[in-house]
Write a structure and sequence with these properties.
This protein has 343 residues and is an alpha/beta fold. It has twelve helices and twelve strands. The strands form two sheets. The chain has a six-stranded parallel β-sheet with strand order 2-1-3-4-5-6. It has a six-stranded parallel β-sheet with strand order 9-8-7-10-11-12, sandwiched between helices.
């Protein structure tokens, strides 16, 4: 396959990724960055030649987050007769609840994103939910292809030694419920604060970067003794592996990379019932879903007390991860490249 696909050359671009040695992406750990790395892996696996800096020999420019330089690059590529793909990782809806000023920014972002996404020949939307949002922006959805961010199922695998090291480091024991990702209100920090008080015998942990109070609503100075916000961790695989239940009460998202990563490890998942998961996350089959904060308490109690349920959900979650693995997505990606480039 590698020899066959060398004719196609892709410019894979993530704005600011190489700026000052990648300082803006260090010690953050976002789904965007995970998606970008997955795209690189898929291209390598397919044998598709790619560069991370534009040159005129590229057939396709693939943009992640169309900020100003990316928009300029998209226009440049189009003038030269090249094809453009843009990932719709960002929506105006998921900007809300991130930073203190993000409510105002989301209004501006909707208009900008509609304009920027419309410059592309193909838009990759991580979910049907995102595709529906783009339709609301006035974007012609005939050029929108639903394409999962994918997950590296080989990377996210169980390691008992690392699991125990993380649990010991953070004082975790018994049944541990937790999350991995940026600590921001939209992702449901208030649910963790509430449930930690209601389940004092359960360990709750949230691995991920904590922003300053100037940017986001600060966490309480006094936390429940059974709740730990660790800050950024280098080894997110070990962090996931330290958990027994993955609890993700996010109110808005485009797919949820962490959901796929938790699924790869076979973790039973408790998610908020939001449109993002419609059609692929199924309550009672590969996860439990809660519509309200009160339901999170009920469903968490069910998971804690029912070992068989946790096992069933975890096994089915692994099946889901395989369906969205990079291996499964590779051929679909290649077909898009071939059709778009005419090669």
């Amino acid at each position: 396959m590698a020899e066959t696909n060398k004719k196609i050359k892709v410019c894979l671009y993530l704005e600011f990724y190489h700026f000052m040695g990648g300082i803006l992406f260090k010690n953050i750990g976002t789904g965007l960055l995970s998606s970008y790395k997955n795209q690189r892996t898929i291209l390598k696996t397919l044998g598709v030649e790619f560069t991370e800096k534009w040159d005129d020999s590229c057939d396709i420019l693939q943009i992640n987050t169309p900020w100003l330089k990316s928009l300029w690059l998209m226009k440049k590529a189009k003038r030269k007769g090249k094809k453009v793909i843009v990932w719709s990782h960002v929506s105006a809806e998921d900007i809300k609840g991130v930073f203190r000023f993000s409510g105002f920014l989301s209004v501006i972002a909707k208009k900008y994103l509609a304009y920027a996404y419309n410059q592309a020949d193909i838009i990759f939307a991580p979910s049907e939910h995102t595709k529906n949002l783009l339709r609301g922006y006035g974007i012609n959805t005939s050029k929108v292809i639903v394409m999962s961010n994918g997950v590296d199922v080989k990377k996210f695998s169980h390691n008992e030694k690392k699991r125990q090291e993380v649990r010991e480091k953070y004082g975790l024991s018994g049944v541990v419920a937790g999350n991995v990702g940026l600590v921001i209100p939209r992702k449901g920090t208030h649910v963790y604060l509430s449930l930690a008080k209601k389940f004092p015998k359960i360990s709750f942990v949230w691995f991920g970067k904590i922003y300053s109070s100037a940017m986001v609503e600060a966490l309480p100075k006094k936390l429940p003794v059974n709740l730990n916000f660790t800050g950024y961790v280098d080894d997110i695989v070990a962090a996931f592996d330290a958990l027994d239940i993955f609890m993700f009460p996010e109110r808005e998202g485009n797919e949820g990379m962490v959901v796929l990563e938790a699924a790869s490890l076979g973790l039973p998942m408790l998610l908020r019932d939001i449109p993002t998961y419609k059609g692929w996350m199924i309550d009672g089959q590969n996860c439990l879903m809660a519509k309200t904060d009160e339901e999170f308490e009920i469903k968490l109690k069910e998971l804690i007390e029912n070992d068989d349920l946790r096992k069933k959900l975890g096994e089915n979650a692994k099946v889901l991860a395989q369906e969205r693995s990079m291996e499964a997505l590779g051929q679909k990606t290649l077909e898009v490249y071939k059709k778009l480039s005419g090669k």
